[in-house]
Amino acid sequence: MSLFDQFANEYPPPVAAPVVLEPAYPAVRTQGGNPVFQLDRVQIPFAVVNLVCVAVANSLLAMAVEGHATGGAARDPAAPRVQRIFRILLTQGDAIEEIELQPRQKGDRIRRLFLDPTARHMLISTEAGDNYYLFDRWQKPRPLSKMRGVIVESIAWGKPRSGSADPSTGVILIGSRQGHIYEAELQPTDEFFKREERYFKQVYSAVGDNMPICGLRYERFPAVPRKYIVIAATPNRLNQFIGTVSDAGGDGGIFGDLFRTHENYYGA
Fold first, then answer.
1. Domain that holds residue 161
2. Residue that terminates a domain, selected from 115, 143, 171
3. Rounded distance, CA 86 to CA 94, Å?
4. How far apart are CA 69 and CA 131, in angstroms?
5. Residues 107-128, buried b or exposed e (16+ Cβ, 10 A)?
6. What is the pLDDT of residues 14-48, one digit of tens each?
7. Distance of alpha carbon 99 from alpha carbon 128, whole angstroms
């Protein structure tokens, strides 16, 4: 036995203590001890084929599905595909509504669904730039003619007008693929000659950028009633606009003055 072997037998190497690996993020929990985020499976009682997109708000799941019509056309690959929207109340698994969208243009397809925080208002955007509005009491989406040609990428939902009994969306901001920001308000109506768009107007354009507005949000300053902040995100930039808005009266919009003060700054 060599001197090194004798030393190894008399003094064995120390056993390394186990290393406890911490996650890269803290386990955020509420005051009651429940996790802030929880992942669960949604039980859908039918097979989902060709899922296009989903949107979730206020325990409501909206799901756009593309498929062939039933009957003989289902066997014909060249037959037009049917655009369907399912509204599923997550608190009641059997509360499912199926709604069929008939696009204005032949062959057009749904690309995005947008739900407001109350899940009462849904905006449906298609690949051809047509947009449709679906109120929670309706079974058929209605086209938004003033928004034709606008490929919607994001929506900043607002609050309904204070003191008003009508179920409108309130003031909303819409970001487009072309880099424009629009202001609008949608109001469900049963009158045949009345449009759902109370108003729709462009309030800003990302001059020189030409990047889609992929994220949009606005909030009011608590201590200053007419002071707002708007956050607009593009794929390579995050922008904020702070300013005073017009009075929220009439149908002319309120955000024009706020964006006008930033015209020479944005996109420079």
1. 154-268
2. 143
3. 12
4. 22
5. ebebbbbbbbeebbbbbbbbeb
6. 555 555 455 555 556 667 777 777 788 887 877 88
7. 20
